[in-house]
Amino acid sequence: MFPNSTILGPLFWIVMGGLYTISFTGFYYWITDSIIKMNWWKWLLSILWFLGLNITIAGGFTLFGEKEIRAGFWFLSVFGGVFIVLGVGLWRLLTSR
Question: Is the pLDDT of residue 2 over 70?
Fold first, then answer.
């Protein structure tokens, strides 16, 4: 990723881990502040959605980096649209009483 640097690779992954920690912590506090009752399958669906969204973004930008611009746009638009629809469905499932 950073071929001529010894510090930027580990620093990148430390920052990414921190961002993931902040997003999971923010999601947890949003759940507790919204008084949403969570059980194991709701947590599982939330984590799977988050991982799928991250894989979609990483895959699309990897295609951009490989100079496959058209494939990257298709990948992001198709799978991004699917995960947006799934995210709306998950949000409605979580907020339904």
Answer: no
